[in-house]
Amino acid sequence: MNLPPVVLRGAVMDLAARYEEEGNGLEDAIDGVLGRMPGMRKRYERPERGRDRLCRSGSVSLDGDGLSCVEACGEDPSKLVWRHEGSEEGESPEIHYGMIASADRPMKDARVRDKLATENDILCFETSAAGLMNYFPCLVVRGISDYSDSHDCSEWQGYAAMAAAAYGKDLLCRIPASRVEAEKKLGDTLSGVDVNVGRILDRQHDQDREIILKWLAPTEGLDFSSKQNEYKNLRKHRTGEWFLKTTEFQTWMRNENQTMFCPGIPGAGKTLMTSRVVDHLEKHYKDANIAYVYCSFGLQDQTPEGLVGSIVRQLARKQFPFPKAVQDLYDQHKDTNSRPGLKALLETLNSIIHSNSRTFIIIDALDECQNHKRCCDSFLSAILAAQAKTRLNLFATSRPQGVETRFRESIVREIVSTEHDLTAYLDNKISSWEKTHEADLSSLRATIKTEIIKAADGMFLLAVLDMNALQSLETKGEVRDALRNPSRRENRLHEAYGQTMERIQSQEESPKRLAMWTLAWVLHARRPLSAVELRYALALNAELTEAEYENYLPNIRRVLSLCAGLVRLDEMSKTIDFVHKSTRDYFEATKNIWFLDAKLEIPRVCAAYLSFGAFRSGCCQTDDDFEERLRTHPFYTYAANYWGHHARESAIMCPEVIKFLECETAVQASTQALLAIKHHSRSPQYSQKFSREMTGLHLAAYFGVEGAIKHLLQKGIAVDAKDAEGHTPLSYAQRNGHVSVAHILLALEKAEPNDEDRSS
């Protein structure tokens, strides 16, 4: 910030020297004014000394906002900071000199206050001069009226203002009129301030825009810019140029209201071609609206609403002024923290597109948009409806089966891996291989390219897998032998995956076990696991105590390397998934070969984790405690939400599941993690909004775990027990569609099918 003018700084120093010799006399000045104007005394006189209370930082709660110190903290002396009251001579307001922090909102957090004050030597915090001091040379004089925490100290504001005014009067009296005349005129300064204020407003508008844009697509799975950059880096120079020159693509690009559908076999390179199309359009149509979507199997946030919201976000970001339709949509929902529906998003999208001459929407892997019921159909219908009203251009890729019937009237061009593209890729990989291994592969380069291109049969992914397989070999002889291998099964893709699995199986026992369980978890997980969750799941496979298992958490990069390229870490979402949907298809078809124990082991691991001593204290009593539990136990959310699904699919009921269900407090803690959902940032006490008093039988019925139901009934667990909301095990089984469990419970005399809970 700008320093105060020299004349003001000099006056401050003179006044400080006088005060040191004579005292500041501010109390007398204030009393004199109040004596002449008694009507002001009630508002501006000094409050009683007992009203000056400073609470310890750790004792101040944000829940006290708007309350007085006594109302918020009570009379507990342990919460207060003791201070010496001083003598009569020291009762005049004290003058402090130093840094005043200026902001656009009051400081209400005592911990943040202390941190900033310590780090920056700050005297106090104020808002009146926010943004001004950077551009307008001035001196700020403030009367301190509160302790910058959540307590209400409004009774001190009048006295603080009076003290500041008294000091300001003294200060002005120290400045000769001639010195004032010599200073720069206010009008000259304000002309410069106008420009700077404009810059401040521009920055504020940019911040407001970003808040709205983030709201439109709030999760990482809906931000596709990182995906575009990733695929752009994977492409090799000049790959995909053949496609951009085709008649079909040129016709689609040059004419409005066109749809182009590009099917391709798994691994053909559709995604890389999509990224090439995006780059080409952004280069040649700089003024056009361009938005793109990379669908990904298993990402729960890729709903029709989420995907359309992402498109609206991308288009709105490029428009100036900011689209009114987007601002209006946000204003309709911000106060209620609600989300717009598909219809409202579509209307907003149409409004944005109408304001621009050309709009291109690019969608990759429509077949992977299957995370919710009819997700693909709803999303595609929304975009086609927008096209019918706005004349946008739509480009989409997919596997051949599934959505091609929606594109019968469209321009169609199959995406295949051309020999030119494969050659460019292989040349780059071989050159990199030679540098890394310090090997001369010139004698094998032509053979490697010929054999891999032949085997790939138009599938880019096969070439990648074959090349990865060769790069794991140590000698030219091994490379030559691998290239001469004539065995080819009819399903080339499964063969490549099978050979990769053979390599994994050939590893030492420890890395092999780690790789196999990684693949098993990625395949069987009910949602994509985060990298942290996977590490805990893998550590828990060992027969370890609660105190020991953290010593066995594997390095995630090492885990990925052991899986021979079959799984990858999504850098944006930080989740682990198969490298391609075709990889998942392969393991779905062969899981009974590779993962015989997974259906028993996974529920065992989840139940064992839920039985840890850390959770036997029961449910947490505050949001902070609950969130701290989730933070310090990264696998807890997944285990609580999905153990039952895994147990239901297991033919054998493991003892760990029974042990967990028989522990009342562990069940209550798990129920909280299962049912307490934070819908938005302002959800106070959300962690307490779940059905309490659920028994193990309730929870087993909720998930439909027949084996556990039978065991608990044999133990004498009450079949007609009700939780705090009046739900019985039977009502949970009925609600979640577990018919066989409902039949088991109905066969018992005490099970009442017509019981009503509170909601009834």
Automatic annotation (TrEMBL):
UniProt keywords, alphabetically: ANK repeat, Repeat
Top-level division of the source organism's lineage: Eukaryota
Domain GPI inositol-deacylase winged helix: 509-587
KW Glycoprotein (keyword) present: no
ANK repeats: 692-724
Keyword set includes Repeat: yes
Limits of the Nephrocystin 3-like N-terminal domain: 239-399
Signal peptide: none
SUPFAM superfamilies linked: Ankyrin repeat, P-loop containing nucleoside triphosphate hydrolases, Purine and uridine phosphorylases
GO biological process: nucleoside metabolic process
GO molecular function: catalytic activity
Name by which UniProt lists this protein: Purine and uridine phosphorylase
The organism's taxonomic lineage, starting at the top: Eukaryota, Fungi, Dikarya, Ascomycota, Pezizomycotina
